[in-house]
Each structure stands twice: as structure tokens, then as C-alpha cells.
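User: what does the whole thing look like in 3D?
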Amino acid sequence: MEVDKGKGEAEETRKVAEADRDTVTLKSSDGKLFEVSKEAAARLSTVLAGMIAGGSIDDNGTDLKQIGSEALENVVDYCNKHANSIPSAALISSSISFNTAPFKEPEEWERKFVDRLSHDALFDLVEAANFLGMERLLDVTCHKISEMMKGKSPDQIREVFNIKNDYTKEELEEIRQELAWAFYDD
Amino acid sequence: MDPRGMRPTATAPTPTPSPASELPTDVLLEIAMRAGFVTLLRCGATCKALRRAIHAPYLAYLVPRVCSDRDGVVPTRLLLYLDTGTSSSFSLAHPSTPDAAVFLVDDHLAPFVSRGAADLLAMYHPVTSRGSLVLLERNRGVEEMWMPSSARRRG
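Assistant: Here's the predicted 3D structure for the full assembly of 341 residues, as C-alpha cells:
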């Protein structure tokens, strides 16, 4: 092995080594580092795929300032579990675009994955999935959270999802009349 | 000493204790779309941003998606939706229900499904419209259907 390498050469070698690495390091808003399989990250997140393809992955930890460590840990955990499960072609090709395909049912392990999360952790995770362009994880988390929304009145939905009512009384009454059937349908 | 206790309360807006963080509208929309059609519409009654999102022209794309979802709850009175995305043709909301069969066969409407909508519309009168939705009532006065009004968007 050559010992006396020029600086340029060493740099070159390091770059090659980076390109060859099969993991990427992600850094949460609070500075914690997480490693995730490059293949899984690129496959599951359009944003990470773009960063990997564009060479903007930092070997010392790619900053994800919008994502806290707990949510990022769940993201990484999901990627690793996903890499270990047998991916079906349907999941990979699923698209978030407003197509007419039905939503994909979560698989058993995905259901368990979100079931164990607290309310806050789930909400943080759905935001992280949205931010990272993780269509499948967004699908799974939204599916879980939709159970908290189903059948609820507008008032109850506001409470659970911390939505501020910015309607006047008159506007609300108008909507209520317009949607009367939707309020009494079930 | 708890340093947080030292923080003056008046300077920064302290986050109100809330059951959950506020989710962005697009995420709430994704969730609402999975909660069924009725809940989706109820969400529009929670705040203006959600109502705008739900009644935006691309609801035309959401309705078929909700309708084709196994868990999607489509009210039985929703008979058809107008697919403005590709062909501007009607599709049945409940393709395999007895209601749909009666609707198609007894009312001789099959030719109109998956075709232009002009003739079919003559059988209905608009009750109310808001955003991209028009509520139509059948002239006989029993069923109702919702359809996105494509005209405004396309014009």
C-alpha cells in the first residue's frame, strides 16, 4: 500500500470511500446522529434520494433541522425494518400523486410499528415523513391517525388536531346548513 | 433552581399546552382523505385553510381515490363523481351495489356513465354549490349526487 500519498490523492480516496459507503448519516435538529442504509433511504424518501443523487449528503451527518431526534429515530427505524421486510413491487411504485389508486393497506409490521407510538410521537413522525417525502411512511402514519378522525364532529376534530377555528358564527352556520347531510349521515 | 422558572412569561409567546402539535394543512388533508368522505367534508368545517384545500379543484382527484379505497366511507347518496382529470366522464361511486345497478338499469343511465355529462345533467337541478362542489338533486327528488364543477377551473 502506498504510504506517501499526495493530498489530492488522499482526498480522492476519501471521496471514493464515501461514495462506496452503504449508509448515510442523518443529524436531527437536536444534534443526534443516526445511520441508515443508503439503499433504503433512497428508496423510501424522495428527499433523501435527491440529496444522495445530488451529492449533498454530509458524511459527518446530514442536517435535518426540521426533525427532532425522537422522530428521526423512528424514521430510521422504519427504514431499517422496511429494508428487512420483503418489499413488494406495489409499495415501491406507489405514488403520492393524486391518482385514482386506492390507498395501500399497511402491512402487519407497519401497523405494529405505528401502534406502539404515542400520540405526539405519531404526529411528529407524520410531519417528518411529509418533510422527507416518504410516501409509504406518510401513508402508514396517515392511515393510523385517520382512525382518530373518523366519525368525529368538526368540534372534536379541532380539539384532537389542535386546529384553530377561524370561522365566524355565521359562516359556521352556513356550512352546517350546506353540509347538513354530512353531519347527520351516520 | 429550575432555569425555566426564571424565564419571563411575557416576552415570548409561550406555546399553549395542546393535545398535539399543529399539523400542516397538506398532512391534515392526507389524513382526512383516509377518514372517509363524510369526515373529509366535516374537516372543511374546522377551519378555512382545510376547507380551501378540500374544496380545491383537485378534490376531483380525491373523490375517485376515496371512492376506490376499501376503507373509504362514501355516503350512499353519492351516486357518481365526475372525473375531470382525464376524460370528464362520470364514474359510479358504488360500482357494485344494488343501488348502482338500479340506477344504471332502471334509469337507463348506463350510456351516460363514462361519457359526456351534458344530457345526464338535464335530469338534475343544482341545489347548492360551493368551491368546486355542486350538490345536485334528481328531479324526482330522491337521490343526490356530488360532483366537482369542472367548468370554473377549466374556463
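In plain terms: The CA atoms of residues 83 and 92 of chain A lie 12 Å apart. Chain A has two domains: 7-150, 158-186.
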